């Protein structure tokens, strides 16, 4: 373990992290009555095993209370790919990518035109869809360029960040949006979603809604109408931290905690019947509202980080030897999230509110010894070179676009069976270069070594890739090749150990997440059989007495509400 001095943002976050949760009392029995409010929380990265271990070792915690008093689901799974965008769309629509059309926050679309296109005549389709911080007017500012005022210190951020607009799209740079050839207009994230959301159903029934997330691109949750969420608070998580030497809020876990605490304040304002800035709202407490936490996810991914105390305690991220227990950074993040959940629980009216806790995605690997870092740029470049050598008349690289975290999604410029089979065969027989990097103590570690099959254990190409998702090859968004990574594979530069875990793949550690439902009318149950996070969406509506069948993805996929809540 090492120590270092904290910067002001880190010190401020440390104070937030150790705030004690208020005393809790059991909610009155309201079984058989519909809730008036449902608060949905995603603890991004949280595994079911993380929750089980935390509850076992922290009997007096907020998480333990939610589990022991509420309904919990031991075998819940997120969709594939296990990325934040499809993970959240599952929770708010009831659908998988085959219905939602959302595969990743960074993907490729074969029908839309490049961002910035103003004269669409004769423009060839095919564009990277960049629904992440790239959409911000200023991706370096936590207000995403809305110019809310001084943001140069933690105190200034706390004072001014809540001046952000209620609509995330107000801060989006429209020149970064992919363009619809039919209208020659940019396609906002909400319009990209093919199905409606729980927020839109609530609004159709005259109810008030709110949500907080990590990028303005989470305009997505508004749904195709664009109007599903009345108050969407989305400070930019990948913006620069004042005084942190160019790091964003994810590069040190205490900074991530400071960032998350900003969103918790918005949730508490909503729970008290206000807007995200705390001003009164005549509609009162939203019927559906919530947020995501980033702190657990960054604690799992960071190789080394501060984790507690004004003295600057620092240590390894992720899990201890064998992946069996949280290391110091992750343990600190879990304590922080638990304390913040305590603040939220204390703020809600437990007689008419239900809280749902889950995760958009997990993270893999838990065991650092399994980690194999592979430079995906090397792999795709080698594939392109091999294709060019075999097809000298080819006019474009074979790989039009790829996104590779702990899985591999490739969109090809040539969609023929010959091309997809070439890519599949090449990757299955490719061995990445053996390179390594330095660990937190400066010792050289080979995190790559000899890795067969480009780090993959399954490859689905062409029609098989579309079939794996559940769509046809005519789908203009489906990848042409889907690589299922071996457990431990993370596509990142092995010479710079920036992350020791990732999500986006199909490993059990990516997809096995918790679901806990607690509050008015919910009695204790421990459900062992398999459920999916898509089932949260119809559950939220049914808890509010709204028809789940008004969700198009629920009808298309026959998604059922979670069991054991009646």
CATH topology-level name of the largest domain? Alkaline Phosphatase, subunit A
Strand runs, count: 24
CATH homologous superfamily of the largest domain?
Alkaline Phosphatase, subunit A
Radius of gyration: 23 Å
Taken as a percent bin, the fraction of beta residues is 15-25%
Biggest β-sheet description: 7 strands, mixed
Instruction: Estimate the mean pLDDT confidence.
Output: 91
Q: Separation of termini? A: 49 Å
Structurally, the number of domains stands at: 3
Shape: globular
* Total helical segments: 17
Query: Can you tell me the residue ranges where pLDDT is under 50 for at least 5 consecutive residues?
Result: 1-32
Q: Provide the structure class.
A: alpha/beta
Helix content: 25-40%
Query: What is the C-level CATH assignment of the largest domain?
Result: Alpha Beta
CATH architecture title of the largest domain: 3-Layer(aba) Sandwich
Quick overview of this protein structure:
This protein has 566 residues and is an alpha/beta fold. Helix 1 packs across helix 9 (253-271), helix 9 runs parallel beside helix 11 and helix 12 (376-390) packs across helix 13.
